[in-house]
Structures are given as C-alpha cells and as structure tokens.
Amino acid sequence: MADETKQEPTGGKNTDEIALELMKFVAVTTGYGKGLGGAGFTGKQARTPEEYAESLLQLFERCRSVVAGS
Fold it and tell me: How far is the C-alpha of 51 from the C-alpha of 69, rounded, in Å?
C-alpha cells in the first residue's frame, strides 16, 4: 500500500484522524478562530477567511501534539 499509516488501538483511527476529530469538536463547540461578533463586541472586526484557516491549522497542530502525548 502506498499510504501506510500507523494504526492505533482506537477503533482503527490513526493519531492524525483523532487529532482532526478533536480539532473539529473544539472549533465547533467554542467558535474557535471565528473572532468576535454580535452584540457587545463591536470593537473587533470579523476575521478574514485566511486568518480563520490559519487559526484552525494552529489548533490542529496543538491537537496533534496532545494526541501524540508530546
């Protein structure tokens, strides 16, 4: 197989898949990276799509390090 990844004893998911699931959970439940918006937060502008993508990539890297146990 060309794409061989180390399988962990976690239902067949590798560490990157687990980190991705963790990242999605954190991002969806907290609104991570979207910036402030709505009533009471008029001083900040919404983030650009590039800034949002960068913050999600940083979150993914943090999740990877947590899952790997580093």
Answer: 27
